[in-house]
Amino acid sequence: MRLNGMRGAAGLAAFALAITLTGTLTGGPGPARAAEPIKIGVPAPLSGAYASAGIDIVNAAKLAADQINAKGGVLGRPLAIVPEDDACDAQTAVQAAQKLIDSGVVAVAGGYCSGAALPELSTLHRRNIPYVLDASTNPQLTEMGYKDAFRTIGRDDEQGPFAASFMTNVLHAKRAAVINDNTTYSKGLAVATVAALKKDGVDVVYNNAITPGQMDYSPVLTRVAALNPDVIYFTGYFAEGGLMVKESRQLNLKPVFMGGDSNQDPTLLKTAGSAANGMFITTAPLPQFLSGAKDFVDDYTQKFGHGPGPYSAYEYDSIGVVAKAIADAKSTAPQAINAALAQIRDYPGITGNISFNEKGDRSVAVYIVITVKNDQFAPYMRLDAQGQWVSMQ
Amino acid sequence: MQAFFQFTVEGLTIGAFYALVALGYTMVYGIIRLINFAHGDIFMVGAFLGWTLLITLAGTHLPMALALLVAFAVALIGSGALGVLIDRVAYQPLLSAPRLSILITALGVSLALENGVLLIYGPGFLTYPPLLSSAGFAIDGVQVSYAQTVMFIISLLLMVALYLFVQRTFIGTAMRALAVDQDAARLMGIDVERIIQITFFVGSFLAAAAGVMEGLYYTQISFFMGFLLGLRAFTAAVLGGIGNIPGAMAGGLLIGLLESYGAGYISSRWTDVFVFLVLIGVLVIKPTGLFGERVVERM
Predict the structure, then answer these.
(1) Which one of B220, B224, B272, B276 would you mutate to disrupt binding with A, by most A Cβ within 10 Å of its Cβ?
(2) How far apart are CA A287 and CA A24, in angstroms?
(3) Who has the most CB within 10 Å: A75, B31, B138, B173?
C-alpha cells in the first residue's frame, strides 16, 4: 500500500463506495436473500473475429437457464448466467476466468476456442470450479488430469480419424493435403487427422500452417494443388475457410475441399457464395439436424430472432448437465458439483444421452459429414453402429 | 515455371493493395514525419463505407454499375474527409509538440476507429454482395481472373495519377516543397496547413479505394482487417524508402510478391519471417530503403 499513495486512496474510496452500495442493495431485510441466484459462468468470444459464435453460445446458455428457472430453478434458487468475453485469446481468457471467479460463479459452462479454454481451465482449476466445455475440442483439455474438466462435445482425436475415414472410404483419396492455422484447436485436429490418414495408408503430401487474418491464400493453394492431392482438409476457422474455398474455386483447383467443424458457420457460406457448394465439413451435428433438438431450435429462434449457432445445442446441454449436477449434489460447493458431474449417466440432452468417462470426456461422441448444397449446409453422411458409412440425404 | 507465374500473378494482386495503402504512410511521413498508425484503419473504414452504400443501394432500383460507382465515390471521398478531420482534430494541434506525442495520438486514433466501427457494425464479419464473378482466363495454365486484372489496372492508374499529381501540379509542387523544408515553404507563401490536409485527403482516398476493392474482391470484411494489412503496407513503405512515392509502390508490389513466393516455395507459416528478413537485409545494405536515396528531398 505504501508503494503507491494514490492507489491506496483510490482503494479506500472504492471500499467506502462498496460498503455504501452493499448497504443499499442488501441492507434491507427481505425474502430476496432466499432466492439468491446460483451463478454459472459462460466464457466465450464476444468480441473479435469469432464473436458471432460466442454470442450464439451465450444465447443458448440464457435460454437453458430461463427454461430451468421457469420450472422453479435448482434447489429452489434461479440460475443466473454470467457471460464473460475471452476474445479467443489466451491472455484475455485468464482475466475472463478470474473475473468469473470474482463474481462468485459455482460452475462454468462454455468456451469456444481451445486456445482460450486451456488457460481458463487452469485458472478455474485452482479454485476447483467445474468447467463443462461445449465447443473446445482439443484433446489436451481433458488430458491434464483435472477432475473439474468435462466436455459435451467430441475430441479432435476422434474427429481426426472420422475425417480420415471419410476421405479414404467415401472419397477414396490416395493423396491428401492438411492445412492448419497454427491455433491450438487447429493444430490438434491436423495432428490427429494426419496420424489417422497415415495409418490408413494415405499419402499426406502437404501438412503445414497458414497465417490467419490474411485475405489471400491463393499462393498456398497453388502450392498445394501442384502436389496433386485428391482432397484438401482445412482444420482452421470459418473466416479463412470461406476465403480458401472461394479462392480454390477461382484457381480452378481440382481437389475436393473439406473443413473441420469450425468451418460450419454462416459466415463461410456468405464469404464463399456458390463456390462453397460441394465442399464437405466434418462436424458434430448441427441442432437443425438433431431429431431431439426441434423444440430447442424453435424456442431459440423465437427468443433471439435467428437460428442457433453450431455449438448452441452443446452449450444448452452443458448448462442442463450443470443444473442436474447441482440438483444431485444438493449443494453449490464446487467440489460437490464436480463429484456429481462425474456421476452423470445418460442425461437426456438434446444432442443425445450424455455420460462422462473418467477423463471427463463425453463417452459417446457423434460426428457427421455435412455438405453445402444450394448455398446451404445439408447433412451428407454418418457412420452407423457397425462403422459403415450411410447417407443422410 | 507455370507455378512461378501463378505465384507472380497472386503476388501482384496482393501487392497492389499493399502499394495503395503504403502510399498514404509514405506521403504523410514525407510531409510531417509522422508514422500514421491510423492509416490501416482508414482502409478498413473505407471498406465499411463501401459496404454500407452497396447494401443500401442494392435495395433501390439503381443499376448495379451505377451503384458501384456511387459506392466508390462516396466511400473514397468520405474516407478522405475522415482523414482530413483526423488531421484537424488529432494531429494539427500537435505538429509543434514533441514527435512522441503525435505518434501516440496516431495509435489512439487507430484504436478509436477500430472500436468505433466495432460499436456501429458489431464484431462479426460482414460480407459484400457477390458482384465480381470469379470468371477469368488462363495463359499456359496460369489462372487470371478478370476481377484481378481490372483491380490491378485500377490500382496502377491510381498510382500513376498520384505520381503525376505530385510531380506536375501546383499543389503537388507545394507538397514536395513542404517535404523539403516546412518553414521555407511557409515563407514562400504556401498554406502549410491546407497542403497537409490535402495530403491526408489523398492518402485516405487511396486507402479507401484499396478497402472497397478488397471488400469486393475477397467479400469478407471485419473491423480488424486494417491491422495486418496496415502493418505490411507500412513495411512496404519502409522497404521502398519511407517518404518516397515510387518507393512505396515498388515496396508494396515487392512485399506482395515476397509473401506469395514465400508461401509458395518455403512455407506460408513463415510468410512474415520471410518478408521481414528481406526488409532487414535491405535496410542493412541500404538504410534509406530501396528508393530513398535523396534524403533531402523526400517526395
Answers:
(1) B220
(2) 44
(3) B31
Question: What sign does the dihedral B92-B231-B144-A217 (CA atoms) show?
Answer: negative
- Whether the pLDDT of residue A4 is over 50: the answer is no
Structural domain range at position B13: 2-129+144-285
Would you say A81 and A42 are in contact if contact means Cβ atoms under 8 Å apart?
Answer: yes
How many domains in chain B? 1
Residue B178 lies in a domain: yes
CB-count exposure of residue B37 (10 Å: 0-12, 13-18, 19+): buried
DSSP state of B265: I
Q: What is the Cα–Cα distance from B254 to B248, expressed in whole angstroms?
A: 10
> Between vectors from CA A301 to CA A296 and to CA A303, what angle results, nearest 5°?
95
pLDDT in tens, A53-111: 899 999 999 999 999 999 999 999 999 999 999 999 999 999 999 999 999 999 999 99
- Distance (Å) from the alpha carbon of A86 to chain B's nearest alpha carbon: 13
pLDDT digits (tens, 9 = 90+) for A18-40: 444 444 444 444 444 557 899 99
3-class secondary-structure state, position B163: helix
Domains A37-154+290-354 and A157-283+368-391 share a fold: yes
Which residues are A81's β-sheet partners? A40
Lookup result for grid cell 464476444? A46
> What is the reported pLDDT for B294?
53
Nearest alpha-carbon partner for B118 in B39, B219, B224, B218: B224
Which residue reads 448497504 in cell numbers? A23
Q: A267 and chain B: CB distance < 8 Å anywhere?
A: yes
Say if B176 falls within a structural domain: yes
Residues 6+ apart with CB under 8 A from A241: A234, A259, A262, A263, A268
- Pairing, β B220-221 against β B126-127: antiparallel
Nearest C-alpha neighbor of A219 from the set A200, A231, A206, A202: A206
CATH number, domain with residue B273:
1.10.3470
Q: Report yes or no on B168 lying in a domain.
A: yes
Determine how β-strand A231-234 pairs with β-strand A175-180.
parallel
Quickly state the pLDDT bin for B62 (edges 50, 70, 90): confident
pTM of this structure: 0.82
Q: CB A393: neighbour CB atoms within 10 A?
A: 8
Superfamily of domain A157-283+368-391: Response regulator (3.40.50.2300)
- DSSP-assigned letter for residue A77: B
**Cell triple for residue B8?**
507472380
- Which residue is closest to B13 within chain A, CA to CA? A216
Side-chain-facing half-sphere of B27: CA atoms under 13 Å:
30
Is the dihedral angle over the CA atoms A43, A210, A268, A48 positive or is it negative? positive
Residue of B143, B218, B268 lying closest to A208 (CB–CB): B268
The reported pLDDT for the residue numbered A22 is 43
- Give a yes or no: residue B135 inside a domain: no
Of A135, A194, A138, the closest CA to residue A167 belongs to A194
In whole angstroms, give the CA distance from residue B70 to residue B68: 5
Nearest to B130 among A239, A267, A273 (CB): A273
Q: Which CATH architecture has domain A37-154+290-354?
A: 3-Layer(aba) Sandwich (3.40)
